[in-house]
Amino acid sequence: MTRSTRIPIILVTGFLGSGKTTLLNRLLRDRAFADSAVIVNEFGEIGIDHHLVGSAKDVILLDSGCLCCAAGDSLGESLIDLYHRRAIGTVPAFFRVLIETSGLADPARIAQVVLGDSLVSSLFALSGVVCVVDALYAQSELAQYVEAREQIAFADRILLSKLDKCGGLATDDLELVVRSLNVTADILPIPPSAQPPAALFHFNRDSGWTPREAAAHHEHSFDVASHAFRIESEVTWAGIAAWTRHLTVRYGDRLLRCKALLRLRCHVGRVVVQGVHRSFVTALDPDIQGDGHTSSIVCIGRNLERPALLAGLSWLNAPEGSEYSASADFAPWEPIQTIEATQS
Fold first, then answer.
1. pLDDT by residue (tens digit) across 156-182?
2. How many Å apart are CA 218 and CA 221, to the nearest integer?
3. Residues sharing a CB contact under 8 Å with residue 207, sequence separation 6 or more, in sequence order
4. Higher pLDDT, 310 or 56
5. CA 7, CA 49: separation in Å to the nearest integer?
6. What residues contact 328, with CB distance under 8 A and at least 6 apart?
7. How far, CA to CA in Å, does 302 sit from each of 250, 251, 274?
8. What does the angle CA 39 – CA 43 – CA 48 come to, to the nearest 5 degrees?
9. What was the pLDDT predicted at 289?
10. Structural domains of the chain in order of their starting residue, each with its CATH number
11. What are the two backbone dihedrals, phi and then psi, of residue 99, each rounded to the nearest 5 degrees?
């Protein structure tokens, strides 16, 4: 199954009480998302009026036509089971999966199931991570809970809820704090209840990850940060393998997430790299042209040393046939020249 035919997964995260379930309820009433399946960590308020599908007690059909189920002991097993039921026709066809995490969940651990399980990753592709942030209480929550910081840092898109209860100045300050944790994500307000939120959940695979302007000289000293790089160099398969191995060995679980669109030597399109902790998935997608002749890289983690991250990019220059050496402090190849580098 190719990347374009795998079923996209959108991970919806956010701290306790941020409004994830409220937003999903609105989303699932939109006809544009009637072909979705939803997996929740625990049954909440989704689907007030629903009925069981056949005799399957763990899968429900919402009024909108969407499927909803609760992940049991294994999220991977739940995904494969849903896919099997779809294939044999015992549940309606679905063409995307929304996974709602609990308020204290580590989104990296959940994404790792999608990227680290070979069977799951052959059937599903992580399309994007959406984080809902409570504009009323985020500042205090971010100061107290590493989970809230990691959820924001991990996201591709950050949605601000309850803005109608905040002043404009407080909202501006919150955006600076959020940007200090994540320099690449879109930060968008959740539209009023009269407007459909579906547009917030569409991801363009060809857009890449564009660094935004970070909050300069901010006073926050969070342990979680994101680092973005743009490079001109073409890379090799051996270089990608060496670089991802280097990240795994050096940072381990401190690396929450890695995203890259890399220009491969003598090939059309981009190599898409998705990494979570120690799990990496790479695939050449000829349909993604990227941003001109550049490659984009984002590394998100706890206490990552930026100079070491920058030096480690030289592993991408490894010639075909070479291998990564964990005993080497740095790659013996020419350094990668970055044309743009941003950090939070």
1. 999 999 888 876 656 788 888 898 888
2. 8
3. none
4. 310
5. 27
6. none
7. 13, 9, 17
8. 100
9. 66
10. 7-201 (3.40.50.300), 224-343 (3.30.1220.10)
11. -110, 115
CA torsion through residues 280, 283, 284, 290, sign: negative
Residue 214's CB is within 10 A of a number of other CB atoms, namely 20
Nearest-angstrom CA–CA distance, 218 and 179: 10
Task: State the pLDDT confidence band at 292, using cuts at 50, 70 and 90.
Answer: low
DSSP conformation letters of 179-233: HHH-SSSEEEEPPPTTS--GGGG---TTS--PPPPP-TT-----SEEEEEEEE--
Distance, in Å, from the CA atom of 83 to the CA atom of 8, rounded to the nearest integer, reads: 12
| Buried/exposed code over 23-32 (b: 16+ C-beta within 10 A; e: otherwise) | bbbbbbbbee
Question: According to the model, what pLDDT value does residue 1 have?
Answer: 47
CA atoms within 13 A on the CB side of 59: 20
How far apart are alpha carbons 140 and 7 in whole angstroms?
37
- pLDDT (tens digit, 9 = 90+) per residue, 272-283? 898 888 888 888
At residue 181's C-alpha, the angle toward residues 175 and 187, to 5°, is 40
Instruction: Report the first-to-last Cα separation within the chain, whole angstroms.
Output: 37
Q: Which amino acid is at 55?
A: S
pLDDT digits (tens, 9 = 90+) for 181-232: 888 899 999 988 778 788 888 886 555 555 555 444 444 556 787 888 888 8
- Phi, psi (5° rounding) for residue 216? -70, 135
DSSP letters, 114-181, are HHH-HHHHHHEEEEEEEEEEETTTHHHHHHH-HHHHHHHHH-SEEEEE-GGGS-HHHHHHHHHHHHHH
- Residue 212 CA: distances (Å) to CA of 72, 304, 308: 38, 19, 22
Please compute the mean of the pLDDT values over residues 41-49 and round it to a whole number. 40
The mean per-residue pLDDT over the stretch 322-338 comes to 71
- What's the whole-number mean pLDDT along residues 115-133? 91
